[in-house]
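pipeline: protein-struct stage 2 | run 1193 | TetR/AcrR family transcriptional regulator
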Amino acid sequence: MEQPSRSAGTVRPGGRTARVRASVLDATQDELVEHGFHGLTMDQVAARAGVGKTTVYRRWGSTAGLVADLMTELANQSSPHADTGGIEGDLRANALSVLGALTDGRLGATFQAVIAAATCDEEAAQALRTFYSRRIGEWAHVVDLAVKRGELPEGTDGTEVIRAVSAPLYYRLVVTREPVTREAAERSAARALAAAKAGAFVIPGDDA
């Protein structure tokens, strides 16, 4: 996964519906950052966005619906995977993008709020799964390209390689509460690459 825009409300097509959605998602993100998922209310989002409560309830239905749409928008804003010409540079770019997202004051707080919500709310968990499935799937292509170039063994699972890059960073963020540093990001990318080259992420054949 790489870093989406800082705000969910930037660069959208015109029209009243688009403007309302932009305002509501910006307000949702602000409320998440300030109050967390369990402090998120439809009324406060509506007031912050300057939108009628009826509109918010009718379109999004619940706070989980707001979070799901916010995560969809953040995924839509994310850029395509890097293409540095080599798997080492691509995985490093992925790690640094994750680092940028997690250490951004607004975006990092958003992720932490949704991750916390996902532990006890299935709709929030589904929104989170959908977001990361899209982003991991996008970056898995760099592994497929590396296999075609002969940099990695045939059968290497790109999804698992990308997960291995970011997993230690998220562990620091939400489990041990340690600083997520550039050094940690680069080290994580290097270790994932070494494991991938050694065949650790090769999908076993049917006869394995």
